[in-house]
Structures are given as C-alpha cells and as structure tokens.
Design brief:
239 residues; alpha/beta; Rossmann fold; Dihydrodipicolinate Reductase, domain 2; six-stranded parallel beta sheet
Length: 239
C-alpha cells in the first residue's frame, strides 16, 4: 500500500483520485492554492503527485523533498530550472520523476516521432511543423509536450537545431510550434512533414484526462521507495 498525497487538486488531481485502486494507494492528503502543502502537511506520505502551476511547482518540490517525500511531477513550464531541481532531489536523497505528459498514448507517440525523425533526416525537401491545441486554462505556451516533440525532432534531423513559437516565417534551421487555446479541448498534438509532392501528418488526440492519470499512477508505483531523478519517457518501457 502506497500512501499518496495530491498536490494540486484541480481537474487532474480529481481525475487521479477517481481512478485510484484502493488496493494500491491510500490518499492521505489533498492540497491546492487554498490549502498549501507547505503549510498543511501533517503525516509524511510515500509519494506526492504534483499537478500545480509553474509559479508554485519549484517551491512544492523543494518542500516535499525536504520532508523526504518522493514526487511525481506533471506540472510543466519549469524545465529551464531542471538542473536546480535535480540538485534539490540529490541534496535530500529523494526520488523524483517528471514528464511533459504522463499519457501512455503520448509516450508511444514520442517513440513514433523519434523513428519518423530518423527517416525524415534523409529527405531535406520536407518542412517540419508542430501544432498543439489545448483548453483555454492551460497556462504554458507552447505546451511542454510540444517542446519535447521538438527536442526529439532536433535530436535526429540535422538541418534543424532549434524551435520557434508561432513564427509566421521561421528560420530554415527552426521547427515552428503553432499553439492554439480552445474551450473544452483536452490536448492535441500534430507533427506535419510537408514537401511539394505530399504531406505526412502524425497526430495524437487526447479524448480525456484519464490517460494522464493512469500514467501518473504508474510513475508513482515506479518511484515508490526509489532515489534519483528520472524522466518518465526514459523509464516508460521498463514500467
């Protein structure tokens, strides 16, 4: 049995709670902006699943690590501080796993994109664009998932070495990410390869948040009792 707290009790936190198997997890606390974990945590859990905001995530991680709590982090918008977070995890000797997207389907999609990128590297006649669409409440733009897709493309396609955001005429060495925010859209990501002859589109469309919740709980089982700093997509096939 894993004692679990939810840090961020919005749509994702509630979805995670709704699918928990009581044979695997016991929820011992639920925290949000009106009930901050740093002020209200009493009993130490085994794992915290953190879906909060870019403004509060670093403080939450440091507080939880200082209390010896392992963390599954689904908040995005902090990856420029990844080395600082890694140092926090190492300082306190805890376990930490994060992802731009915990969806099992998205992590399969990442693998497909990586294989496609290896092929497209050989064909410079194809332009490359990423389109991402989310609900209007999503705070970061472009999405962490879109940035991760861009990273995978840049790793394998030698003519591309950076990404741009909503640029009408991106530079030749840049992959453009177009971001849209529309009511009631869970999450959609497309990678479009286009030449004068044809167009190839890879697409992942999330129908609900349940895929994210399932992946976060898989990550919680993985990180329970472990130490170290992990990225979910790196350990995905081993879970």
């Amino acid at each position: 049995m894993i004692d679990l707290i939810l840090v961020g009790y919005g749509k994702m936190g509630k979805m995670i709670e709704s699918i928990i198997d009581p044979n695997d997890f016991r929820v011992t606390g639920k925290f949000d902006v009106s009930n901050p974990v740093s002020e209200n945590l009493k009993d130490k859990p085994n794992v915290a699943i953190e879906f909060s905001t870019p403004a509060s995530v670093i403080g939450n991680i440091e507080f939880l690590a200082s209390r010896g709590v392992n963390v599954v982090c689904g908040t995005t918008g902090w990856y420029d501080k990844a080395e600082s977070v890694k140092a926090i995890v190492e300082k306190y000797g805890t376990g930490f796993v994060y992802a731009s997207n915990f969806s099992i389907g998205v992590n399969i999609f990442f693998r497909i994109v990586k294989e496609a990128a290896k092929l497209l590297d050989k064909y410079p006649g194809y332009s490359i664009d990423i389109e991402e669409t989310h609900h209007t409440q999503k705070l970061d733009k472009p999405s962490g998932t879109a940035i991760r897709i861009a990273d995978y493309l840049i790793e394998s396609i030698r003519r591309k070495n950076k990404f741009s955001s909503d640029e009408p005429s991106p530079e030749e060495d840049s992959i453009n990410i177009v971001s849209k925010r529309i009511e009631n859209v869970v999450g959609n990501h497309k990678v479009v390869f286009e030449s004068n002859a044809d167009e190839i589109t890879l697409e992942h469309n999330a129908k609900s948040r349940i895929g994210f919740a399932e992946g976060a709980l898989l990550a919680a089982k993985f990180i329970h009792g472990k130490k170290g700093f992990y990225r979910f997509e790196d350990i995905f096939t081993s879970i």
